Amino acid sequence: MLPVIGWGGGGHPGAWPASPRKEAGGGRVRGRFDTALAAPGRALNMLKSQLAAQGAAFEQTGGFSERLTTRRLAAREEARDAAPAPTCPQCAQPMRRRKSAKGEFWGCSAYPECKGTKPM
């Protein structure tokens, strides 16, 4: 008689081996399975707590764009306080710091009506 290949450990020579639970009695193997199933749960709990902490920090300080805007505004205010702008020699309006291909210069804030400039 030829051996029959089966799926469930029927006990004959050509059958698949029995499951580890049947062979080990369930105690030792079950512990491994429980640990394998608990690890993803622990990882999910850790990720949830990290997301909650990052969400709280985001609410307090804002995201990257908000922090960048805050720093730019602070730098502009600091620059305004550092050096008062001169007045335009043509119309007496305050001048603004401008940039060109040749470098920085003072330009009239009433531009394009007034084209007054001063070197830095």
Describe the structure in your own words:
It is built from three helices and three strands. It is an alpha+beta fold. The chain folds into two domains: 1-82, no CATH class; 85-120. A hairpin with a 2-residue loop joins β1 and β2 (103-108). It has helices at residues 20-24, 27-61, 64-82, and strands at 95-100, 103-108, 117-119. It has a three-stranded antiparallel beta sheet with strand order 1-2-3, with no helix packed on it. Residues 22-27 have low confidence and may be disordered.
Radius of gyration: 38 Å
Q: In this structure, how is the largest beta sheet organized?
A: 3 strands, antiparallel
The run of helices and strands is HHHEEE
Q: For the record, give the distance between the C-alpha atoms at the N and C termini, rounded to a whole number.
A: 104 Å
Percent of residues in β-strands: 5-15%
> What number is the mean pLDDT?
77
What structural category characterises the helix and strand content? alpha+beta
> Would you identify the regions where 5 or more consecutive residues have pLDDT less than 50?
22-27
Helical coverage, percent range? 40-55%
Strand tally, please? Answer: 3
